[in-house]
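Recall the central idea of this unit: under ordinary conditions, the amino acid sequence of a chain determines the structure it adopts. In this exercise we apply that idea directly, starting from the sequence alone.
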Amino acid sequence: MYPCVETIRIVDGQLPPPAIWALHQERVARTCRELYGVAPFDLREALAARPLPETLRSGTVKCRILYGPTGCTATEYAPYRPPRIGSLVAVEDDSLEYRFKYSDRSSLTAWHERAVAAGCDDALLIRRGEVTDTTFCNVAFRVAESPSEWHTPAAPLLCGTLRERLLQTGQIVPCNIPLTALTSGFYDRVALFNAMNDFGSITLPMQQIHIAPTCP
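Accordingly, the structure predicted from this sequence is:
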């Protein structure tokens, strides 16, 4: 079994605020219990065992904590640069499953590579007729006639920590979003977000979502 991974954003040497940190710990605990059947480990202890290097104490750093049935197995740090996303292609794949944050992302990587080959920056994944996520971000769609209202898929591939926080604070609302909604005019923008990219930092007009003509 491939290990799972928890991705944490560190900015100028500072960990996420308590509300976000708690969500990271909760997801690790849930994965340990439900997937591995073991007691959870403490993320702070994992970071203390391999502290952030002095050379990475300024700027934005992506921290990856890999873990499995025996607890934390590795902690990795790397400088982070936000991606440039200007277009998406909507593709259907009913076989996609990514409930737990596995380190093995081969199925998602394959769709990303196909999207790039098709001239787009990433894939918007459709499962059983409903919008889920892109290959690396949760998504939300702005209601055209109510610009303060954002809808996020009720059944994403992965329940991200930032998505959960946005739900808690009422900034996004869970809804079933069918493929047909992408071209209906009901929404006018899409936002991509995850632990490394704040809500609102990556947004596109709906016209930049292209529908794949065929599905494998």
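Helices lie at 18-36, 43-49, 106-117, 161-168.
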